[in-house]
Amino acid sequence: MDDFVVAAWNVHCGVDGWGRPFDVVSPCRELDADVLVLEEAWHPDDGSPGTALVVAQALGYSLVEAPLGHGRLLGPDPQARSTWGPGVWSRRDAIRLDRARRRAAASGTPGRARQPGSWGVAVLTRLPIVTWSEVRFARRRRDPAWRAALVATLAHASGPVTVVGTHLCHLSQGSPLQFRELRSLLGSLGGAVVVAGDMNLWGPPVSAMLPGFHRAAVGRSWPAWRPHSQPDHILVNAEVTVHSGAVLPLRGSDHLPVRATLAIDHDVRPDGPAPVARDWSSR
User: Fold this and answer.
1) Environment class of 73 (CB within 10 Å of its CB; exposed 0-12, middle 13-18, buried 19+)
2) Domains detected in the chain
3) pTM of this prediction?
Protein backbone atom coordinates (compact mmCIF):
# COMPACT_ATOMS: atom_id res chain seq x y z
CA MET A 1 0.00 0.00 0.00
CA ASP A 2 1.70 3.19 -1.25
CA ASP A 3 1.20 6.24 0.92
CA PHE A 4 0.65 9.75 -0.37
CA VAL A 5 0.48 13.01 1.56
CA VAL A 6 -2.22 15.67 1.22
CA ALA A 7 -1.98 19.06 2.93
CA ALA A 8 -4.07 22.23 2.96
CA TRP A 9 -3.14 25.72 4.05
CA ASN A 10 -4.89 29.08 3.96
CA VAL A 11 -1.96 31.38 3.20
CA HIS A 12 -3.69 34.81 3.49
CA CYS A 13 -2.10 35.91 0.20
CA GLY A 14 1.38 35.51 1.67
CA VAL A 15 1.06 38.56 3.95
CA ASP A 16 0.09 39.13 7.55
CA GLY A 17 -2.87 41.29 8.53
CA TRP A 18 -0.73 44.43 8.31
CA GLY A 19 0.37 43.58 4.75
CA ARG A 20 3.90 42.44 5.66
CA PRO A 21 5.04 39.54 3.41
CA PHE A 22 6.09 36.24 4.93
CA ASP A 23 7.87 33.21 3.48
CA VAL A 24 5.29 30.82 2.01
CA VAL A 25 7.72 28.50 0.22
CA SER A 26 9.67 27.24 3.23
CA PRO A 27 6.61 26.05 5.21
CA CYS A 28 5.25 24.39 2.06
CA ARG A 29 8.59 22.64 1.64
CA GLU A 30 8.33 21.41 5.24
CA LEU A 31 4.85 20.06 4.55
CA ASP A 32 6.41 17.87 1.83
CA ALA A 33 2.98 17.04 0.43
CA ASP A 34 2.30 15.13 -2.76
CA VAL A 35 -0.85 17.23 -3.12
CA LEU A 36 -1.12 20.69 -1.59
CA VAL A 37 -4.29 22.79 -1.53
CA LEU A 38 -3.70 26.50 -0.96
CA GLU A 39 -6.53 28.86 -0.08
CA GLU A 40 -6.39 32.67 -0.33
CA ALA A 41 -3.67 32.42 -2.95
CA TRP A 42 -2.99 35.80 -4.58
CA HIS A 43 -2.69 36.23 -8.37
CA PRO A 44 -1.58 39.77 -9.42
CA ASP A 45 -3.20 41.41 -12.43
CA ASP A 46 0.18 42.62 -13.72
CA GLY A 47 1.26 39.12 -14.75
CA SER A 48 3.89 38.68 -12.04
CA PRO A 49 3.95 35.27 -10.33
CA GLY A 50 1.24 34.73 -7.76
CA THR A 51 1.45 32.88 -4.45
CA ALA A 52 0.64 29.43 -5.82
CA LEU A 53 2.90 29.74 -8.86
CA VAL A 54 5.86 30.83 -6.72
CA VAL A 55 5.42 27.72 -4.57
CA ALA A 56 4.87 25.45 -7.58
CA GLN A 57 7.98 26.67 -9.37
CA ALA A 58 10.15 26.48 -6.26
CA LEU A 59 9.03 22.97 -5.24
CA GLY A 60 8.33 21.29 -8.56
CA TYR A 61 4.54 21.06 -8.50
CA SER A 62 2.03 21.10 -11.33
CA LEU A 63 -0.63 23.72 -10.65
CA VAL A 64 -4.31 24.39 -11.27
CA GLU A 65 -6.05 27.35 -9.67
CA ALA A 66 -9.33 29.23 -9.68
CA PRO A 67 -9.95 32.91 -8.83
CA LEU A 68 -12.75 33.43 -6.32
CA GLY A 69 -12.71 37.19 -6.05
CA HIS A 70 -11.00 40.33 -7.33
CA GLY A 71 -9.59 43.03 -5.13
CA ARG A 72 -6.54 44.87 -3.86
CA LEU A 73 -3.63 43.63 -1.80
CA LEU A 74 -2.25 46.45 0.32
CA GLY A 75 1.42 46.87 1.12
CA PRO A 76 2.78 47.05 4.68
CA ASP A 77 0.92 49.39 6.97
CA PRO A 78 3.28 52.10 8.31
CA GLN A 79 1.32 51.94 11.58
CA ALA A 80 1.85 48.18 11.97
CA ARG A 81 2.52 46.82 15.43
CA SER A 82 4.19 43.60 16.57
CA THR A 83 0.92 41.65 16.43
CA TRP A 84 0.03 39.49 13.41
CA GLY A 85 -2.58 41.99 12.31
CA PRO A 86 -4.91 44.77 13.35
CA GLY A 87 -7.53 42.29 14.57
CA VAL A 88 -10.02 39.79 13.24
CA TRP A 89 -12.44 41.35 10.72
CA SER A 90 -10.61 44.68 10.99
CA ARG A 91 -11.31 47.23 8.28
CA ARG A 92 -7.54 47.76 8.15
CA ASP A 93 -6.75 44.22 6.94
CA ALA A 94 -4.41 44.01 3.94
CA ILE A 95 -6.85 42.11 1.68
CA ARG A 96 -9.67 44.16 0.15
CA LEU A 97 -12.10 42.25 -2.05
CA ASP A 98 -14.04 44.48 -4.45
CA ARG A 99 -17.41 43.01 -3.53
CA ALA A 100 -16.96 43.39 0.22
CA ARG A 101 -20.01 45.07 1.67
CA ARG A 102 -17.91 46.99 4.20
CA ARG A 103 -14.78 48.45 2.69
CA ALA A 104 -11.97 50.02 4.65
CA ALA A 105 -11.31 53.60 3.64
CA ALA A 106 -8.00 53.82 1.79
CA SER A 107 -7.54 57.31 3.18
CA GLY A 108 -7.08 55.75 6.61
CA THR A 109 -3.75 54.22 5.62
CA PRO A 110 -1.86 56.71 3.43
CA GLY A 111 1.28 55.60 1.63
CA ARG A 112 0.36 51.94 1.21
CA ALA A 113 0.87 50.28 -2.16
CA ARG A 114 -2.26 48.76 -3.70
CA GLN A 115 -1.80 45.79 -6.00
CA PRO A 116 -4.89 44.70 -7.98
CA GLY A 117 -5.36 41.00 -8.43
CA SER A 118 -7.39 37.88 -7.75
CA TRP A 119 -7.85 35.90 -4.55
CA GLY A 120 -8.50 32.20 -4.96
CA VAL A 121 -7.85 28.52 -4.38
CA ALA A 122 -5.15 26.33 -5.93
CA VAL A 123 -4.25 22.65 -6.12
CA LEU A 124 -0.55 21.84 -6.45
CA THR A 125 0.43 18.26 -7.18
CA ARG A 126 3.42 16.03 -7.78
CA LEU A 127 1.08 13.29 -8.98
CA PRO A 128 0.20 13.42 -12.68
CA ILE A 129 -3.07 15.18 -13.46
CA VAL A 130 -5.45 12.94 -15.44
CA THR A 131 -8.23 15.53 -15.66
CA TRP A 132 -9.44 18.54 -13.73
CA SER A 133 -12.40 20.89 -13.65
CA GLU A 134 -13.68 23.89 -11.73
CA VAL A 135 -17.12 23.69 -10.13
CA ARG A 136 -18.62 27.05 -9.19
CA PHE A 137 -21.18 27.23 -6.42
CA ALA A 138 -24.12 29.62 -6.39
CA ARG A 139 -23.06 33.01 -5.11
CA ARG A 140 -24.41 33.98 -1.72
CA ARG A 141 -25.59 37.55 -1.25
CA ARG A 142 -23.58 38.18 1.92
CA ASP A 143 -20.37 36.64 0.62
CA PRO A 144 -17.80 38.99 -0.99
CA ALA A 145 -16.33 36.14 -3.06
CA TRP A 146 -17.35 33.42 -5.45
CA ARG A 147 -16.88 29.93 -4.07
CA ALA A 148 -15.78 26.92 -6.07
CA ALA A 149 -14.22 23.49 -5.93
CA LEU A 150 -11.22 22.39 -7.97
CA VAL A 151 -11.72 18.73 -8.87
CA ALA A 152 -8.48 17.01 -9.93
CA THR A 153 -8.27 13.31 -10.74
CA LEU A 154 -4.65 12.26 -10.20
CA ALA A 155 -2.67 9.19 -11.16
CA HIS A 156 -1.16 7.26 -8.28
CA ALA A 157 0.70 3.95 -8.23
CA SER A 158 -2.21 2.36 -6.34
CA GLY A 159 -4.84 3.76 -8.69
CA PRO A 160 -6.54 7.08 -9.43
CA VAL A 161 -7.50 9.44 -6.64
CA THR A 162 -9.70 12.52 -6.95
CA VAL A 163 -8.74 15.54 -4.86
CA VAL A 164 -11.32 18.28 -4.33
CA GLY A 165 -9.84 21.57 -3.14
CA THR A 166 -12.22 24.22 -1.87
CA HIS A 167 -12.73 27.32 0.27
CA LEU A 168 -16.29 27.85 1.51
CA CYS A 169 -17.93 30.93 3.00
CA HIS A 170 -18.91 31.46 6.63
CA LEU A 171 -21.98 29.99 8.30
CA SER A 172 -23.57 33.43 8.53
CA GLN A 173 -23.07 33.94 4.79
CA GLY A 174 -24.92 30.80 3.74
CA SER A 175 -22.36 28.00 3.82
CA PRO A 176 -24.98 25.24 4.45
CA LEU A 177 -26.22 25.84 0.90
CA GLN A 178 -22.66 25.51 -0.41
CA PHE A 179 -22.19 22.32 1.58
CA ARG A 180 -25.31 20.99 -0.13
CA GLU A 181 -23.77 21.76 -3.53
CA LEU A 182 -20.47 20.21 -2.45
CA ARG A 183 -22.30 17.10 -1.22
CA SER A 184 -24.02 16.77 -4.60
CA LEU A 185 -20.68 17.12 -6.38
CA LEU A 186 -19.03 14.47 -4.20
CA GLY A 187 -21.94 12.12 -4.87
CA SER A 188 -21.10 12.25 -8.59
CA LEU A 189 -17.54 11.06 -8.06
CA GLY A 190 -16.36 7.48 -7.79
CA GLY A 191 -13.35 5.72 -6.33
CA ALA A 192 -10.93 7.26 -3.84
CA VAL A 193 -11.82 10.89 -3.02
CA VAL A 194 -10.10 13.44 -0.76
CA VAL A 195 -11.62 16.84 0.09
CA ALA A 196 -9.33 19.53 1.46
CA GLY A 197 -9.50 23.22 2.27
CA ASP A 198 -10.74 26.00 4.51
CA MET A 199 -14.43 25.29 5.12
CA ASN A 200 -14.94 28.06 7.69
CA LEU A 201 -16.70 25.59 9.97
CA TRP A 202 -15.52 23.27 12.72
CA GLY A 203 -15.30 19.51 12.34
CA PRO A 204 -18.50 17.86 13.67
CA PRO A 205 -20.95 19.87 11.51
CA VAL A 206 -18.65 19.48 8.49
CA SER A 207 -18.76 15.70 8.93
CA ALA A 208 -22.54 15.84 9.39
CA MET A 209 -23.02 17.79 6.16
CA LEU A 210 -20.74 15.53 4.12
CA PRO A 211 -21.95 11.99 4.93
CA GLY A 212 -19.65 9.25 3.76
CA PHE A 213 -16.56 11.33 4.50
CA HIS A 214 -14.54 11.40 7.69
CA ARG A 215 -11.82 13.71 8.97
CA ALA A 216 -8.22 12.73 8.35
CA ALA A 217 -6.67 15.43 10.56
CA VAL A 218 -8.10 16.75 13.82
CA GLY A 219 -6.70 19.74 15.72
CA ARG A 220 -7.06 23.46 16.24
CA SER A 221 -5.87 25.48 13.26
CA TRP A 222 -7.17 29.05 13.77
CA PRO A 223 -6.06 31.63 14.74
CA ALA A 224 -2.46 30.50 14.35
CA TRP A 225 -1.08 32.40 17.37
CA ARG A 226 -3.65 30.92 19.78
CA PRO A 227 -5.81 28.37 17.94
CA HIS A 228 -9.18 27.50 19.37
CA SER A 229 -11.07 26.19 16.30
CA GLN A 230 -10.56 24.01 13.24
CA PRO A 231 -11.99 25.48 10.04
CA ASP A 232 -9.29 23.75 7.93
CA HIS A 233 -9.99 20.15 6.97
CA ILE A 234 -8.91 17.08 5.06
CA LEU A 235 -11.73 14.56 4.61
CA VAL A 236 -11.67 11.17 2.90
CA ASN A 237 -14.23 8.61 1.79
CA ALA A 238 -14.23 4.88 2.55
CA GLU A 239 -11.87 4.11 -0.33
CA VAL A 240 -9.06 6.00 1.41
CA THR A 241 -7.15 4.82 4.49
CA VAL A 242 -5.75 7.39 6.92
CA HIS A 243 -2.34 6.52 8.35
CA SER A 244 -1.78 9.80 10.18
CA GLY A 245 -3.07 13.34 10.30
CA ALA A 246 -2.23 16.51 12.18
CA VAL A 247 -2.33 20.29 12.35
CA LEU A 248 1.23 21.57 12.04
CA PRO A 249 2.72 24.59 13.84
CA LEU A 250 4.05 26.32 10.71
CA ARG A 251 3.49 30.04 11.06
CA GLY A 252 3.09 33.04 8.80
CA SER A 253 -0.61 33.01 7.99
CA ASP A 254 -3.46 33.35 10.46
CA HIS A 255 -4.24 29.67 9.74
CA LEU A 256 -2.11 26.63 10.54
CA PRO A 257 -1.76 23.97 7.83
CA VAL A 258 -3.34 20.52 8.05
CA ARG A 259 -1.56 17.43 6.73
CA ALA A 260 -2.50 13.75 6.35
CA THR A 261 -0.73 10.61 5.15
CA LEU A 262 -3.19 8.52 3.16
CA ALA A 263 -3.44 5.40 1.02
CA ILE A 264 -5.96 3.97 -1.41
CA ASP A 265 -7.74 1.03 0.18
CA HIS A 266 -7.68 -1.87 -2.27
CA ASP A 267 -10.16 -3.85 -0.18
CA VAL A 268 -12.98 -1.42 -0.90
CA ARG A 269 -11.88 0.24 -4.13
CA PRO A 270 -14.00 -1.05 -7.03
CA ASP A 271 -12.27 -2.91 -9.86
CA GLY A 272 -11.03 -0.75 -12.68
CA PRO A 273 -10.24 2.96 -12.71
CA ALA A 274 -12.43 5.41 -10.85
CA PRO A 275 -14.74 7.50 -13.01
CA VAL A 276 -13.19 10.86 -13.86
CA ALA A 277 -14.88 14.03 -12.69
CA ARG A 278 -17.55 15.42 -14.94
CA ASP A 279 -16.80 18.80 -16.51
CA TRP A 280 -18.98 21.16 -14.51
CA SER A 281 -17.15 24.28 -15.64
CA SER A 282 -20.07 25.46 -17.78
CA ARG A 283 -22.34 25.78 -14.74
Assistant:
1) buried
2) 4-264 (3.60.10.10)
3) 0.91
